[in-house]
Amino acid sequence: MDVLMGKEKIKKIIPHREPMLLVDEVLEMTAGERIRTRLSLKPDMMFFKGHFPDAPVLPGVLTVEAMAQTADILLLSMECYAGLTPLFIGIDKVSFKKKLEPGDVPEITAYVIRINEPKAVVTCGAEVFCDGGIVATGEVTLAMR
Fold first, then answer.
1. Please, how many CA atoms are within 13 Å of residue 51, restricted to the half-sphere of its CB?
2. Do 108 and 37 form a contact (C-beta atoms < 8 A)?
3. What is the pLDDT of residues 53-73, one digit of tens each?
4. What is the pLDDT of residue 51?
5. Domain edges within the chain
6. How far, in Å, CA of 71 to CA of 14, rounded?
7. Core vs surface per residue 70-104: b (16+ CB within 10 A) or e
8. Type and span of the H or E element at 76
9. Count of beta carbons in the 10 Å neighbourhood of residue 127
């Protein structure tokens, strides 16, 4: 599968950096509409050391953060939001179906649901998949500042 953007290009779009950068590659993107990204969960990632040492699992809040960062890339790639800082202002309808573990390579999709242009607030739907199955779904709302 072709990669549209690698980590260095992603860093030119969004302000996140390691260890909080939770998107490795952009696989597909239709500007202002939809995006698909990928994250490789390496066993040495810092959060696995404490969550949980004997049975490491990606914390749900970081799954949601990966959903938001995927939406951030989509939105900050739009000319009207380029260079702004995306602030997380809402999470809604999040549901987890499966856990993510070291070695997993989830793919995240995000798509624009609604834009409040005067307030520069955008709500995106997002879905996380791994090994062909759904891991999580939800909506993230971002204020572009």
1. 14
2. yes
3. 999 999 999 999 999 999 999
4. 94
5. 7-144
6. 10
7. bbbbbbbbbeebeebebeeeeeeebeeeeebeeeb
8. helix 60-76
9. 17
Active site members: 51
Encoded amino acid at 105, one letter? V
Cβ–Cβ under 8 Å, residues 85 and 15:
yes
Percent of the chain with pLDDT over 90: 98
Average pLDDT score over residue span 32-50 = 96
**H/E stretch holding 65:** helix 60-76
| Per-residue pLDDT reduced to its tens digit, 77-114 | 999 999 999 999 999 999 999 999 999 999 999 999 99
- 7-144 architecture in CATH? Roll (3.10)
Distance CA 21, CA 39 (A): 10
Distance CA 107, CA 22 (A): 11
Reported as a pLDDT band with limits 50, 70 and 90, residue 1 is: low
Please name which of 91, 87, 79, 74 lies closest in space to residue 121, comparing C-alpha atoms: 87
